[in-house]
Amino acid sequence: MYGPKVPQDLIEPIKCEKCQAEIFELFHKMGKVSALRSPNGKELFTSSPIYRCTACGTFLELKESKEEEEEKQPSAIVTK
Ligand SMILES: [Zn+2]
To answer: How many angstroms separate the CA atoms of 35 and 46, rounded?
Structure first.
């Protein structure tokens, strides 16, 4: 019903950074582009999904783009 089935063992639960809870509520973060800046000259409204931990209320922002993870480990340069 919700797209391709994902084998259960591939799923890693996303946990709240603060309280480690795994249940989130969906909210919509709304935005507006004024008519002066809008590409079509009309006021535009945008919404993006945002999730909030039901236990402690912390918002979870999912990083959609795979940014380069910091692999540079400065720990190699250690002067004694
Ligand atoms: Zn939480």
So the answer is: 13
pLDDT attached to residue 58 = 95
Q: Which of 54, 57, 52, 56 is nearest to 26 (CA)?
A: 52
Q: 70 CB contacts (<8 Å, ≥6 apart)?
A: none
> How far does residue 56's CA lie from ligand 1's centre (Å)?
4
pTM of the model: 0.55
Distance CA 47, CA 7 (A): 30
Distance in Å, CA 57 to ligand 1 centroid: 6
Instruction: Average the pLDDT over 45-49 and give the result.
Output: 91
CA–CA separation, 23 and 45 (whole Å): 28
- Angle made by CA atoms 23, 14, 45, in degrees to the nearest 5: 75
